[in-house]
C-alpha cells in the first residue's frame, strides 16, 4: 500500500505550458505517473506532453476525472492557482512553487480548513510512491518500493536519506516533501497520521530542520498516538539565532525557540531516535526492521 498517491491517481498539471511545467510533466509521465491533462488560463484546446490542456482546473478535473494536481506556476500567481485547485473536485494538490507570498498562503491556509482537498507544499519537491506515481520534481531513480515511509521539510535531505535506505535494500512506501516555508499545507503531523494508518508502512524517517515548532508538535503526536516506529534527523544544528538558513521557515528566533536542540530533545522524549547524519537514520531504520 501507500499514502495519498498510487498507480490509480489521475494527475493534472497546472502551468503545463511553461518550461518547468512541461519538462516535469514529461518526467512524471516517463516515470509512469498517470498524467491526464493540464490547466492554464487561456490555453484551453492545446496539447502539451501528449495530454489536453484546459482553461480551468475545474474543467480539467471534470473532463479527465482527475483527482490530483501538481502546480508549476510563478510565485505571484501560485496562491490563486492553489485556491483554484482547492475549489475543484480534487483530492490532492501539490504546489512545487518557491517564493509564494506569505499573505497568499495565509489565505490558502484559511481555505484549507473549509475543504476536503489536501495540499502538499508549497516550496516542496512533491510526493512519490515508488514504482507507481510521482507528483513533483523528485528524482525517481533513487527510490525503490518497500515499507519505509519518509516525510521531510527538505528535498535534499529526502534524497540523501532515500539514497542511504535504498543502498541498504530498504524500499519506501511513500515519500512526502512537505516544504520548508512558514505556512504549508500538509504538516509533519498530517503525514505521520497517514503513515500510521498505512498497514504496509513499517517504519518512518522524519527529516526536520530548525525554525518553527512543527517537529515539537510531531513529537507530541508520536508520543500520544503512534505505534509505527519513527527515526528522526534535524538539520541546522550550528545555525546562528536570527539568521534564515535556506528555507524561509528555517530560522531560529532570538528567544531560542526553533533550535535543533529543542527539536532533538522533544523527539528523544517521545522515544524517537535522532540520527546525526542521513546515513545514521538509514542504519537506525535497518536495525528496527
From TrEMBL:
PROSITE patterns: SUCCINYL_COA_LIG_1, SUCCINYL_COA_LIG_2. It holds the Pfam family Ligase_CoA. Substrate binds at residue 159. The keyword DNA-binding does not apply. GO terms for cellular component: succinate-CoA ligase complex (ADP-forming). GO terms for biological process: tricarboxylic acid cycle. Its EC number is 6.2.1.5. The active site is at residue 247. Keywords: Ligase, Nucleotide-binding, Tricarboxylic acid cycle. It comes from the Archaea. It is an enzyme of class 6 (ligase). One of its GO terms (molecular function) is acetate-CoA ligase (ADP-forming) activity. Pathway: Carbohydrate metabolism; tricarboxylic acid cycle; succinate from succinyl-CoA (ligase route): step 1/1. Residues 4-100 form the CoA-binding domain. CoA binds at residues 17-20, 96-98. Succinyl-CoA synthetase functions in the citric acid cycle (TCA), coupling the hydrolysis of succinyl-CoA to the synthesis of either ATP or GTP and thus represents the only step of substrate-level phosphorylation in the TCA. The alpha subunit of the enzyme binds the substrates coenzyme A and phosphate, while succinate binding and nucleotide specificity is provided by the beta subunit. Heterotetramer of two alpha and two beta subunits. Belongs to the succinate/malate CoA ligase alpha subunit family. NCBIfam families: PRK05678.1, sucCoAalpha. This is Succinate--CoA ligase [ADP-forming] subunit alpha. It comes from Natronoarchaeum mannanilyticum.
